[in-house]
Amino acid sequence: MTSTTAPGGTAGRDRTGTVAVLLAGATVLALAASVALDLATTATQRDASGAGTASSSVVPGLLLLLAAAAVLTAVPRHAVGRLLVAVGAVWALDGVLSGWITYGYTHDLPLTGFAFWFVARFGAVLLSGLVALLLLYPTGRLLPGRARSAGLAVAASSLALPVMLLVAPDRIVFRENGPADVDTELFTLPLSDAVWTALLVTAQVLTFGSIVGAVALVWLRHRQASSSERTQLRWLLWAGIMCVLLVVAGVVFSIGGLATTIALNVAVTTLAASITVGLVRPGLGDVDALVAWTLTTAAVAAVVVAVDVALLAALDGVLGDRLDQREVTFLVLVLAVVVYGPLRAWLGQGVRRLLFGRRSDRYDAVSALAARLEATGSLDEQLPALAGAVADTFKVSFVRVEVVTPDGGLLAATHGREPAEVQSFDIAYHDTRVGRLVLPVLGVRAMLSRRDQGLLVDLVRQAAIAIRAGLLATEVQESRERLVLGREEDRRRIRRDLHDGLGPALGGVALRLDAAGNAVESDPDRARELVRLARTEVSDALDDVRRLVHDLRPPALDDLGLEAAVRQQAERLRPELAVTVHAEALAGLPAAVEVAAYRTVAEALTNVVKHAGAATATVSMLRTSGALSVEVTDDGRGIADDVAAGVGLLSMRERAEELGGQCQVSCPPGGGTTVHAWLPFAEETRRDQ
């Protein structure tokens, strides 16, 4: 047995493994060098040089290098993986060189000036790397079309500050905080300090503004992305939310020193992990649930902290210095247990509902929908109730509910304004699709976690039961109306036939017989003629009676039985269609089942002769436990998909549904048409033998 390998496949894997090993080795060396430099210097020396600990500055770069190794191992030569290598390497080198600055100043070693130049001037390129990550993730390519030009412009803007820091003079870059004995200028340009300052401020605006532009392009990419790509982008969204929350927390609480370092490492860890998972295994976790949990937790924490600050300020303003520390502590504990604990829980629940509705409380959502459906009556009222319940539960701006009616029509109810892009979920009852639910695609609230999807299934299942009950009630009512109308139409027809046809005919016969009796002796010929006319009129009246009886129930069923009546019907079609009849155990069927089976076979065979162009047909009637199975197949041309059901097909279905059964018409792949009717009946209901 031989196997083949794609050209370059093994070599590509080998190169990928080599890159991963090199990156791992580089991370170990960078971490070891940074730790050694930190151990070789003191805090006083680091303060004197203006540099921090090298290891804390190296860690973010190492995290990005590890992420790059994972990405390139799973997706070789991916542009985002290569970019992570570049950004991580620069970040790690920046950290090591920041440690070298302190050590070099202390021991007057070479390369100290280069280290300061790299950290102070070249390190700003990390901002450009962040912008490039946003522009290229997750495909490794810029957006096509006009967005590509915008992406190139954003990328160019991100380089403004790094380029300006490379060419600006030391007196502008460092002002009063720069080292007096280190020259970091590569070259100088004859510009005034005012011009240099204006250029530097403009470069800062362009570079920091490019981050906003990159975020806008990420949002545009999300709108145009496929479902799988949206999942990858949501991992990046979660990382962005975490970074924003860390920045806001740092500004609000004025953290610094070690806390700032920890926050930076957490932010970079989040970014590296999200990029790696998004590119390597985007389906690893429920990212939608993670985003929702992060947002709600942050919102609840913000509200609770704000209330904490307000209550403490109010307590301090009311009590002042009246209580000692022990009394204040006791009072705060009592208030926290008795009043503030329930208040915080209530606030947290309120914030969650404000942001994401009732999706976190499945029982509450299902019971609220049940109450709404119970308060409504008809299907026209239940659909808006379902749309409103889903909108309230998931806090979405648009919901549309569509239900297929028994006649193939469509009922719909809409809540809110329909957005440009939507997603649909089928509403099924016993594996039968009865409608669908339409929700928006874009927006944080439109993201459905697996738990949210489970809740949506519960809501849809309960709604399907109510909708199915409403449809059945509508069908029952329509069936009753059809039965009443049909019964009265039959009564009116029979009355008309009896009153206008059979009654006058029999009255005329009686008059003719009276006239014949009077003429028997005086005019025998006239009497015989009157009797002959009376006999003709009686025959016509008998034909009318037979027609009335046939319309009520085919006489062949009473005269011959179901099987023989069907065979007789098949014989009548013999010149145009060869029909084979198979029947088993048909004795003792209820009269309604016999009529439905006979009418179904007759209608199906008539359709075959008129429309199918078939040469042969087969009729099978098999009695099973509590039901009669009727099947008519032919070898004709079948029914096209775009052909609407005619009166004949609808009448067959209605006859089966009136007995609680069903009738299906299908066209097998091999050709022809199959009509299968299932007619149930109660075994104890028997026709008199």
Q: Can you characterise this structure?
A:
The protein is α+β, with helices and mostly antiparallel strands and 689 residues long. It folds into six domains: 111 residues, no CATH class; 92 residues; 55 residues, no CATH class; 122 residues, Beta-Lactamase (2-Layer Sandwich), CATH 3.30.450.40; 66 residues, Single alpha-helices involved in coiled-coils or other helix-helix interfaces (Up-down Bundle), CATH 1.20.5; 120 residues, Histidine kinase-like ATPase, C-terminal domain (Heat Shock Protein 90), CATH 3.30.565. It is 67% helix and 10% strand. It has 22 helices and nine strands. The strands form two sheets. A five-stranded mixed β-sheet has the order 5-6-7-9-8. It is elongated and about 160 Å long.
User: Helical segment tally?
Assistant: 22
Please state the overall shape, judged from the principal axes of the Cα atoms: elongated
Strand content: 5-15%
Rg, Cα atoms, Å: 43 Å
Terminal CA distance: 74 Å
Biggest β-sheet description:
5 strands, mixed
Helical content class: 55-70%
The spatial strand order of the largest sheet comes to 5-6-7-9-8
Please state the average pLDDT score: 75
**Topology, number of strands:** 9
**CATH superfamily membership of the largest domain, which one?**
GAF domain
Low-confidence stretches: 1-10, 685-689
CATH architecture of the largest domain: 2-Layer Sandwich
Q: Structural class of the secondary structure composition?
A: alpha+beta
CATH top level assignment of the largest domain: Alpha Beta
CATH topology of the largest domain: Beta-Lactamase
